[in-house]
Design goal:
This protein has one helix at about 100-125; strands at about 5-10, 15-20, 30-35, 40, 45-50, 55-60, 70-75, 80-90. By secondary structure, it is an alpha+beta fold. It has a single domain (about 5-125), classed as Immunoglobulin-like (Sandwich). The longest helix is centred in the last third of the chain and has 25 residues, at about 100-125. It starts with a strand and ends with a helix.
Length: about 120
C-alpha cells in the first residue's frame, strides 16, 4: 500500500496534471514512475505545492502515444510498487462504450503483478 494518494486536477494541451498527497504527515517527496507500454515516460515533473506533504505532478503525453488505438499510462509509487492512478487515450475508430481501455488497463496491471510475483519468488528462495 502506498503512503500517497493521487487526484487528477486537469488534462489539457497534452499535459496531465494531478495533486499528490501524503497520507502520513512528514513524508518525504516520493519517487514516481510513469509508464506507457512498460516503457518510462520522459519529462515527468514533481514539484512542491504550497502545503507540506503535497506535490504537483505533471505528465507530458509523448508524441508516440498519439495515434490509432488505446494507450494507457500507469502512474506508480516506485518505492511501494503500487499503481496510484492511470489515464487512457483512445484514438481512431472509437465506439461509444469501448471496453478496450479497460482491457488495456487490466493487461498493464497484470504485467505489474507478474513482475512483483517473480521478484517475490526470487527473494524468498
Amino acid at each position: 500500500m502506498s503512503a500517497f494518494s493521487l487526484t487528477k486536477t486537469r488534462f489539457r494541451e497534452g499535459l496531465w496534471e494531478g495533486l499528490l498527497t501524503a497520507v502520513e504527515k512528514g513524508a518525504a517527496q516520493p519517487e514516481i514512475s510513469v509508464t506507457l507500454r512498460d516503457m518510462p515516460v520522459r519529462g515527468v515533473t514533481l514539484t512542491d505545492a504550497k502545503e507540506a506533504g503535497r506535490w504537483v505532478i505533471q505528465i507530458p503525453v509523448p508524441v508516440e502515444a498519439v495515434g490509432e488505438g488505446v494507450q494507457t499510462f500507469l502512474i506508480s509509487d516506485a518505492n511501494a510498487d503500487v499503481v496510484l492512478d492511470s489515464f487512457t487515450l483512445i484514438a481512431g475508430d472509437v465506439l461509444g462504450d469501448d471496453i478496450r481501455a479497460e482491457v488495456d488497463l487490466l493487461r498493464a496491471e497484470l504485467d505489474m503483478l507478474k513482475r512483483a510475483f517473480r521478484r517475490h519468488c526470487l527473494e524468498t528462495t
